[in-house]
Amino acid sequence: MQKSSAGLLALAGWFAVIAQYVLMLNNNVNTVGEATIRFFSYFTILTNIAVATYYTALLIDAPIARTRGLLSAITIYIIIVGLVYQVALRHIWDPQGLQKWVDELLHSVIPLGALIYWGLFEKKGLRYSQIFAWSIYPLVYLLFILIRGSISGFYPYPFVNVTEIGLQQTLINALIILALFMVLSLVFIFINRKVRK
């Protein structure tokens, strides 16, 4: 069951990411290079790639898949993708056709599947000190989109669009999401430690 579940999540992840890239290119008004950079500027895309890569590594029994805490970190990242989308982004657009299916995969199905997988199969003990290492990815991502946005004028999400809402509000929004990440991390570790006891 564990292998088949990992396989389904890997397959769903790769399909959703590739389909989203193709859909984006079909509706693209920028150069392919710029469109590709923008594609990889979305936390949703990067995190779904991380999910697909991790579950692929599990399938082939790659050593990195056995890294303590990696499953939990990736699960928390993809849960944030789902929560932020449901709260802040779902109401601002109405995808149709294949885009709607891909959108639900990226923001709803895969986050839920990853959470269920974590609940069933995370056996390694977690430590609260791991939160600091887990926070590197979202912090580096934030730094990247702010620097790149200041140069290109493109910000992937409205709640970090410095041009529209200003740097102060952007940083406040980023702190709220970081707080969500910290709370989720604490909850995941607490549950893990309780279950192991």
Description of the structure:
With 197 residues, this protein is mainly alpha-helical. It has one domain. It contains eight helices and no strands. It has helices spanning 2-26, 32-39, 43-59, 70-89, 97-121, 130-134, 136-152, 162-196. Helix 1 (2-26) packs antiparallel against helix 3 (43-59). It is globular.
Q: What's the total count of β strands?
A: 0
Oligomeric description of these chains: single chain
Structural classification: mainly alpha
Percent range of helical residues: over 70%
**Strand composition percent:** under 5%
Radius of gyration: 17 Å
Secondary structure tally, helices = 8
Poorly predicted ranges: none
Overall form: globular
How many independent structural domains?
1
Q: Give the topology string: H per helix, E per strand.
A: HHHHHHHH
Span between termini:
24 Å
Largest sheet: none
